[in-house]
Design goal:
This protein is an alpha/beta fold and about 400 residues long. The protein has 13 helices and twelve strands. The protein has a seven-stranded mixed beta sheet, with helices on both faces. The chain binds pyridoxal-5'-phosphate. Pyridoxal-5'-phosphate (PLP) binds near residues 124, 204, 234, 236 and 247. Pyridoxal-5'-phosphate binds next to α4.
């Protein structure tokens, strides 16, 4: 059986086996603490859920315009204008089925055969796989633990070639929690502006930044290359809405139209109900975001405190998102577990704690632990992990 050639380029997930083991153990009734998932453990705030119920009751259950309902597009534009001081209009916004579809629309609209697109690793795998699905060549810049996984302009610029059509930056980064600094982005855009290069900013975790680091990447990019900057955001992480599948692309009008065209021939738009929920999220009270952010910060500090007392885990302090990404090579041994995938299996089978192996993010020797779990669970998980290492 032959599949389309584009599939030859796409890598399967390296963590499927671990996921299958989690599933199997759960079916046997084993109590697994799951620090593997990339999603908030909080329920969607009540006023958002109620807006969705109202949408159903009021009959807002039909097709919407492809780019999303006007009020939501307006709210997204307003959200970024308020946060960044850059003026956005509703016709620059396309509402998508999660940030993931926003990134995919952008990749399909902007990149193709013969193009190179630069991004950073360790990074969220879909960014790279989408670039390859679009037919372009993926160029990866490595960030390093010794440097707190900082994304440095000089490293990105070193990989720019005459074939470069795009640079995709994710900040805060999944899985490291690092931020790209305004200064580094400034250096980058100063160099690439005026060339035929798109800058795609994946800011899906932007409302989950824990320290007072300036992070107006949109402002920095817009000051030099407003016609070349594409922003992707999402309701998933900030409003605990992963299952609602609602995100957006904010881009120059012609790019927004191109993304809308692509989407109009695939999913059309996210469900009308989710769009009304996202509208309530963006235009309603924001205390819920702050409450969740404060709780994630407490959990991060707790985990960093525990981990820093164990020399076998070398980690950087994440500034955002909800992951720790320690180097666990000191826990590996030729007698086993020999790799981080084996280490993850060991923690799962012997400690009943699920985490994600660094291999999934192109970083063997590391693991990703999500702290989107209660403090009690994190405490118990850490004890179980310690027990496994004895
Ligand atoms: C870095 C990054 N970008 C984008 C997304 C997309 O999330 P969603 O499609 O739920 O908005 C994710 C989800 O895990 C992510 O980690």
């Amino acid at each position: 059986m032959r599949f389309a050639e584009r599939l030859d380029q796409v890598s399967p997930s390296q963590t499927q086996e671990v996921l299958a083991t989690v599933q199997g153990l759960r079916e046997e009734g084993v109590d697994i603490i799951d620090l593997g998932a990339g999603e908030p453990d909080f329920d969607t705030p009540d006023h958002i859920a109620r807006a969705a119920v109202t949408a159903i009751r009021e009959g807002n259950t039909k097709y919407t315009p492809g780019a999303g309902i006007g009020r939501l597009r307006e709210a997204v534009a307003q959200h970024y204008t308020n946060r960044t001081g850059v003026d956005f209009e509703r016709n620059q916004v396309v509402v998508t089925s999660g940030g993931k579809q926003g990134l995919f629309n952008a990749a399909l609209a902007l990149f193709g055969t013969g193009d190179e697109v630069v991004t950073h690793v360790p990074g969220w795998p879909s960014i790279g796989e989408q670039i390859k699905l679009a037919g372009a060549e993926l160029v990866q810049v490595r960030t390093h633990l010794d440097n707190s996984f900082a994304i440095r302009a000089a490293d990105v610029l070193e990989r720019i070639s005459p074939r470069t059509r795009g640079v995709v930056i994710n900040s805060p980064v999944n899985p490291t929690g690092a931020l790209m600094s305004e200064v580094e982005l400034g250096l980058l855009v100063t160099e690439i502006t005026g060339r035929d290069i798109w800058l795609v900013l994946d800011l899906c975790y932007e409302q989950l930044i824990y320290d007072s680091s300036p992070h107006n990447l949109i402002g920095v990019a817009a000051s030099k290359m407003p016609d070349r900057t594409v922003v992707v955001g999402s309701a998933s992480k900030s409003y605990a809405m992963t299952g609602w599948r609602c995100g957006w692309v904010v881009a120059p009008k012609r790019v927004a139209s191109a993304c809308n065209l692509i989407q109009s021939h695939s999913t059309s738009h996210p469900t009308s109900i989710s769009q009304y929920a996202a509208l309530a999220a963006l235009s309603g009270p924001q205390e819920c975001v702050e409450k969740m952010r404060n709780e994630y910060r407490r959990r991060r500090d707790f985990m960093i405190d525990r981990m820093s007392k164990d020399v076998r885990f070398r980690t950087a302090q994440p500034n955002g998102a909800f992951y720790l990404f320690p180097d666990v090579s000191d826990c590996l041994d030729p007698e086993g577990p020999r790799t981080s995938i084996e280490f993850v299996k060991h923690l799962l089978i012997n400690g009943h704690v699920a985490v994600t192996a660094g291999e999934a993010f192109d970083a063997p020797g590391y693991i990703r632990l999500s702290y989107a779990a209660s403090l009690e669970k994190l405490e118990e998980a850490w004890e179980r992990i310690q027990g496994c290492l004895e």
